[in-house]
Specification:
heterodimer; A: about 250 residues; mainly alpha; B: about 250 residues; alpha/beta; 6-stranded mixed sheet; 4-stranded antiparallel sheet; about 40% helix
Chain lengths: ~250, ~250
């Protein structure tokens, strides 16, 4: 019953979030700010994680394909497909749920307990639309870019491990990443990332916006936001994979 | 004028507002007083529409404010300014951006005109020159002044203040009170100030409403506060032994 009530509150919250903004110029300005906060500021972590994971997948795959009948270029193919199909969308989304989600929930939570959200409401501003919509737009626009960046950097990480650790000949790796390439995998990864972006920003905003109490509750809501976003990402991943990758 | 009629509000089955009916007059500082937990913040937040009441009506002049949809509520709110207990300045924005915010949101003035208005408001509350500072860089008193500047930037008809001098020393508190009084008279606003500070009552209380156990149990002027026979109010006003002795004499 409580879950249903919460679900209802969430949908009403989203309805308010996507209602017509007060001024489009302000929405544009806020969106640009959020792109910097949720997108550009996440470049570093995405690059570092993807680089190392790309390198590790290459080493592990090479270790597991020791059969001389299997061509070496399969390592490159496996790395590319692992990154495109799963890591650069789902795993990066889980990392972003931790980084961006907790930041959104705690920022909104602090705004709630210091009455800044009340101040917006009293001014006659639709606080949900003003605070949440730019975050959703920024994430929907920028998370797919982070996903593509992660694929690119992950593949580069694999290549570096070939060159520096002599895992397989770099030429075989290059051949593998070009072999049997389906461009559809990229649109699949981007589609997933768009859904994940909506989940991360809206769920985190929801938990932050409705905080009651003080600093302890802000911390709790931030944790809840990350946990719930992560579970929903995994669930959405399963549903999307089943429906669009067939 | 703001009028509340037969307001009821309960939390967890207990009435926090119990049949409250009061008229707050235009051009005057209307003070809501009462001890902590008496329901005065709930009353002010209900008047601002931040808390939905169960029963009763709230009127801003001839416009009904209670039990209406969000869009209609937002239209009335554009004529409202509110000063929060903790100032509630947007901490990611500078002083200038804070005061500019309502102007950006609801006016189509040029950037120059808006900045002129910002500087005028900051000068009015005597914090000019702080434009590029962030709220965290200001003292409590200055934050309150900037919050007042933001509240009056759109020339509101109604000003609601929740404990404007809490956390301030008595001298700064009186300065803030007088500023509110000055602006109320100058712009002919309907001002409601929520306070439990007797200094405020005696300094600016044109009309005083005493809330006790969720009921508006006494109304009068600041002069009448000192002469009343109402026992609950006397206990609140003359809380210390010394004050009780002075009252007896």
């Amino acid at each position: 019953m409580r879950l249903l009530a919460q679900l209802g509150t969430y949908f009403l919250f989203m309805k308010r979030a996507v209602s017509r903004p007060e001024k489009h110029s302000i929405l544009y300005r806020q969106t640009m700010r959020e792109i910097e906060k949720v997108g550009i500021d996440s470049f570093g972590i995405v690059v570092i994680v993807s680089l190392f994971v790309g390198a590790v997948i290459t080493i592990q795959t090479s270790f597991n394909i020791e059969n001389p009948l299997l061509p070496k270029y399969l390592v490159g193919l496996t790395v590319r497909d692992s990154l495109m199909l799963e890591f650069s969308s789902t795993m990066i989304a889980l990392i972003l749920a931790g980084k961006v989600g907790s930041s959104i929930a705690s920022e909104l939570g602090m705004m709630r307990i210091t009455e800044q959200i009340d101040a917006l409401e009293v001014m006659g501003v639709n606080s949900v639309s003003y605070l949440i919509l730019p975050r959703i737009i920024a994430a929907v626009l920028f998370f797919p870019i982070l996903c593509l960046l992660s694929i690119f950097v992950g593949i580069a990480g694999g290549y570096l491990s070939c060159v520096l650790a002599n895992v397989i000949p770099p030429a075989d790796y290059i051949m593998g990443i070009q072999y049997a390439f389906y461009p559809y995998y990229i649109s699949y990864a981007i589609t997933k990332m768009v859904f994940f972006a909506i989940i991360i920003t809206s769920v985190s905003s929801f938990y932050g916006y409705y905080v009651k109490g003080g600093a302890v509750e802000v911390g709790k809501s931030s944790t809840k936001a990350v946990v719930q976003s992560s579970i929903l990402i995994l669930l959405a991943n399963l549903i999307l994979t089943k429906t669009i990758l067939q | 004028m703001i009028e509340v009629k037969n307001l009821f509000k309960k939390f967890d089955g207990e009435y926090v507002l119990n049949d409250v009916s009061v008229k707050f007059e235009q051009g005057k500082c209307n003070l809501i007083i009462g001890r902590s937990g008496s329901g005065k913040t709930v009353l002010l937040k209900s008047i601002a529409g931040l808390i939905e009441v169960e029963e009763g009506e709230i009127w801003y002049d001839d416009q009904k404010f209670s039990h209406i949809n969000m869009d209609s509520k937002q239209q009335i709110r554009k004529e409202m300014g509110m000063l929060f207990q903790g100032s509630a300045l947007f901490d990611s924005l500078t002083v200038e951006e804070n005061v500019l915010f309502p102007l950006d949101m609801f006016t189509s003035k040029t950037r120059g005109e808006k900045l002129d208005r910002v500087n005028f408001c900051l000068e009015k509350v005597k914090v000019s020159g702080t434009n590029n500072l962030y709220p965290a860089e200001l003292s409590g008193g200055m934050q309150k002044r900037v919050a007042i500047a933001r509240a009056i930037s759109l020339n509101p008809r109604y000003l609601l203040c929740d404990e404007p001098n809490s956390g301030l020393d008595p001298e700064t508190g009186i300065v803030i009170d007088n500023l509110i009084k000055e602006l109320t008279v100058e712009y002919n606003m309907t001002t409601i100030v929520n306070s439990h500070d007797m200094n405020s009552v005696l300094e600016i209380g044109d009309k005083v409403v005493f809330i006790f156990n969720g009921c508006a149990c006494w109304e009068g002027t600041r002069e009448e506060v000192l002469k009343t026979d109402n026992e609950a109010l006397n206990n609140f006003v003359f809380a210390t032994n010394m004050a009780k002795q002075i009252k007896r004499n």
